TrEMBL record:
UniProt keyword annotation of Transferase present: yes
GO molecular function: riboflavin synthase activity
EC number: 2.5.1.9
Keywords annotated in UniProt: Repeat, Riboflavin biosynthesis, Transferase
SUPFAM superfamilies recorded: Riboflavin synthase domain-like (SSF63380)
Gene3D superfamilies noted in UniProt: 2.40.30.20
Renumbered ranges of Lumazine-binding repeats: 1-96, 97-193
Catalytic activity of the protein: 2 6,7-dimethyl-8-(1-D-ribityl)lumazine + H(+) = 5-amino-6-(D-ribitylamino)uracil + riboflavin
Lineage: Bacteria, Bacillati, Actinomycetota, Actinomycetes, Kitasatosporales
Name this protein carries in UniProt: Riboflavin synthase
Length: 204
């Protein structure tokens, strides 16, 4: 489990195509501290497994399903990525519960800079709009953010200077894709209420 609090801005140093999958080599001096084979690291909000670790770099395999459902397929050598290790037991939940399971992708539509912050509008797939509410939580490229405004096909988030300086949202431009993960609690509530309405829950 992750919290959506990005630990560092990493970099793709190599991409190896393996048929319908690929292997990334990524640089991240912070997240590689103590990293071992089989550990999980979130890359732009996608939970990936460490295959190899050497120095401040690690490799991770990305399957076709992940490439199809996320924006990782557009990454290339030199791309900057948000990196986060799983939350340690007993650690602080600084953001919200993030699984690292991308629900879909959106697109940066507009940026409105202000003196000390920036408002960013992002497109929202129709099948995810019911999970996004004003002042609720959403994960964008692995960043836990609070929704400012929620529409049927878009939402806005307000970014503080720290987020702009230390994550990919500081450099994303209109037209760039982003990974989206909605609040998992909303999905569980929807499922339970649906079971109650159909009587399926009582039948189990």
């Amino acid at each position: 489990m992750f919290t959506g609090i990005v630990e560092e801005l990493g970099e793709i140093t190599a991409v190896e195509t393996l048929g319908d999958s690929c292997r990334f080599r990524l640089r991240g001096p912070v997240v590689t501290q103590g990293a071992r084979h089989g550990d999980s690291i979130a890359v732009n909000g996608v939970c990936l497994t460490v295959v190899e670790h050497e120095g401040d770099e690690f490799t991770a395999d990305v399957m076709a399903e992940t490439l199809n459902r996320s924006s990782l397929g557009v990454l290339a050598v030199g791309s900057r990525v948000n990196l986060e290790r799983p939350m340690a037991v007993g650690g602080r939940l600084g953001g919200h519960i993030v699984q690292g399971h991308v629900d879909g992708t959106g697109e940066v539509l507009e940026r409105k800079p202000s003196e000390n912050w920036e408002l960013v509008r992002i497109s929202l797939p129709a099948d995810l709009s019911r999970y996004v509410v004003e002042k609720g939580s959403i994960t964008v490229d692995g960043i836990s953010l609070t929704v400012v405004d929620a529409g049927p096909d878009h939402f806005t988030v307000s970014l503080i200077p720290t987020t702009l300086a230390l994550t990919t949202l500081g450099i994303k431009q209109p037209g760039d894709p982003v990974n989206l993960e909605v609040d998992v609690i909303a999905k569980y509530v929807e499922r339970m209420l649906g079971d109650r309405a159909t009587g399926e829950g009582a039948a189990r």
